[in-house]
Structures are given as structure tokens and as C-alpha cells.
Amino acid sequence: MVGLGLGSDLLRNLTQAKKQVIPISMFVAVLCLCLVIGHLLEENRWFNKSVTAILINEKESRDAGQETEGDAVADR
Known about the structure:
Blueprint: H1 2-43, H2 45-75
């Protein structure tokens, strides 16, 4: 009978340990994912900056075109 009690205690301890391991494993996995994504973004920083510059220039040229149209309407 002593063996059965030991087995159930072992099973209970393993279940509790599993409940603690899963959140820690998820935290480590998310941390690693963030590191990998950060590394990839750092390597492509020049690309991100150039895309941002293109988008800003496009918006400025669009805004300048609207001001020109507005000035033309006001001149009529």
C-alpha cells in the first residue's frame, strides 16, 4: 500500500511542476522570438528608413499638390 501512495504523490507533483513549466517555457519562447525579430529589423534598418522616407516624401508631395489646387480655385 505504501507504493500506491508514493505513486499518486509523484503524479501530483509532476502535474504541479508541469503547470509551472508551461508559463516559463512560453515566456522564454516569446523572449527568443522578440530577440530574433529585433535582430532581423536591425539588419534591415536601412530598408525601413528608406521606405519611411519615401512615404513621407509622397505625403508631402500630395499635400503640396492639394495646396496648389486650392490656390488655383481661390484665384478664379
